[in-house]
Design a protein that fits this description.
alpha+beta; 5-stranded mixed β-sheet; rod-shaped; 10 helices
Length: 435
């Protein structure tokens, strides 16, 4: 970055120098042309006053810098201080002569590419109708510019060196606050020196905090997974060791076998939920979205969970009207199954669970409501965290993994849905999913 800034500053300086030189050369050359024209006009007027170019006279004037030519009204050269007048062609076709005969004076500049010179001509019509023409050679604008090239290169070299030095100092000053901000990214109170960097600093700090939060979440998740896997594995290993060492009788063997099966099922459910969460973490949107009708899906989920609801003596009912959303049908089914399973699991004997699908204010809505144990106020913000349980002992007894609502949250995010939780401890819970 520093090198780019230095080089660009140098290039800008060189371009500015070149354009300035061209502009100044053009301006001064135009001024020079105007001055040459004025000098030739003044000289012609003075020569007219000398009387040397009166009718019948033979001028003897000679100027080493200005060429003097006297032309008759018909274009015949009467006198030339450089060449033999009789040998010169008729000048009636010369523009400056024609203008002088018509308007009283004429001037023109002719370029000589061969000698890289310009010839300035000024013609003045005298009182007797003849024309006095003066000519002077001067360098062309290109030759003037080329003559300035050595000086231009020397100045350019000096300016480029100065620009590199200043660029190095300026970039160091510019970048120093950015480097300081990068070193103290964890200090929110440290404001950036440049006001323009404040949005950038806020964005970087926000991303930095998210990265740290994600890293902490992964660390916590790993620790929780290790703990959750260790519990059923320890139970399975303990029961199996007792049976292997023949330390239990026949009736206890059956009970221990049941405990092993129950812990193995819990372990399998936990592994499946972890795998699903990992897949959902990498999913941004449904792979192949399709129109999903929520009422028919609600009836299907209620039918699948009717048996566990009866086992817990919980009434499971499905209501509503047709409401369609675009999405992944299997993921949406998983979302509703987790909500209904939680409503059954954390209910009381004789309780109810109601699933409602409908459209409300132009949005498809799912509502899962129960009159179970409810959620404490201080736990409402955490129930969608991974492995968080309001009642840990009850969750383990009923086969909960602590990941159900985390899966619900991920699936809702994938479908751009909003989850609203309303719960009163001891009275029940109402969860609304708005698409």
């Amino acid at each position: 970055m520093k090198q780019k800034i230095n080089l660009r500053l140098g290039l800008i300086a060189l371009v500015a120098l070149l354009l300035t030189t061209l502009g100044v050369t053009k301006v001064y050359y135009d001024l020079f042309r105007q001055q040459v024209g004025r000098d030739l006009r003044l000289t012609a007027q003075l020569l007219e006053q000398t009387g040397e170019f009166a009718p019948g006279s033979t001028p003897l004037l000679k100027n080493n810098e200005v060429r003097i030519t006297w032309v008759d009204a018909d274009g015949t050269v009467l006198y030339d201080d450089v060449a033999d007048a009789s040998a010169l062609p008729n000048h009636a076709d010369r523009p400056e002569i024609q203008h002088a005969l018509e308007t009283g004076e004429g001037e023109i500049v002719r370029n000589s590419d061969t000698f890289n010179m310009n010839t300035f001509y000024y013609a003045l019509r005298l009182s007797d109708g003849t024309v006095l023409r003066l000519a002077v050679d001067a360098r062309s604008i290109s030759s003037v510019f080329l003559a300035a090239v050595p000086v231009l290169l020397a100045v350019a070299a000096v300016i480029f060196a100065v620009c590199l030095l200043l660029g190095h100092l300026l970039t160091a000053q510019l970048i120093a606050p950015i480097e300081d901000m990068a070193e103290h990214l964890d200090e929110p109170a440290r404001e950036p020196v440049y006001q323009e960097l404040e949005p950038f600093a806020r964005k970087i700090r926000s991303q930095h905090e998210k990265i740290l939060s994600a890293a902490q979440s992964r660390q916590d998740f790993t620790a929780n997974v290790s703990h959750e896997l260790k519990t059923p594995l320890t139970a399975i290993s303990g029961y199996a060791e007792l049976i292997e060492n023949k330390m239990v009788d026949g009736d206890q063997q059956l009970r221990f076998a049941g405990e092993i099966r129950k812990n193995a099922a819990r372990l399998l459910n936990l592994i499946n939920d972890i795998i699903q969460l990992s897949e959902l973490d990498s999913t941004q949107s449904p792979a192949q979205p399709q129109s999903v009708e929520l009422l028919s899906l609600s009836k299907e989920v209620c039918a699948d969970l009717e048996v566990p609801a009866r086992q817990r003596r919980v009434s499971l009912q499905c209501f509503g009207r047709e409401a369609t959303v675009p999405g992944d049908r299997e993921l949406l089914k998983e979302l509703l199954e987790n909500l209904v399973q939680n409503a059954i699991r954390y209910n009381r004997e004789g309780g109810f669970v109601q699933v409602t699908a409908k459209e409300e204010s132009g949005h498809a809505v799912w509502i899962v409501e129960d009159n179970g144990i409810g959620i404490p106020e201080d736990a409402k913000d955490r129930v969608f965290e991974r492995f968080y349980r309001v009642d840990k002992s009850r969750s383990r007894e009923t086969g909960g993994t602590g990941l159900g609502l985390a899966i619900v949250k991920h699936i809702a995010q994938i479908h751009n849905a909003k989850i609203t939780l309303n719960s009163t401890l001891g009275q029940g819970t109402r969860i609304t999913v708005t698409f």
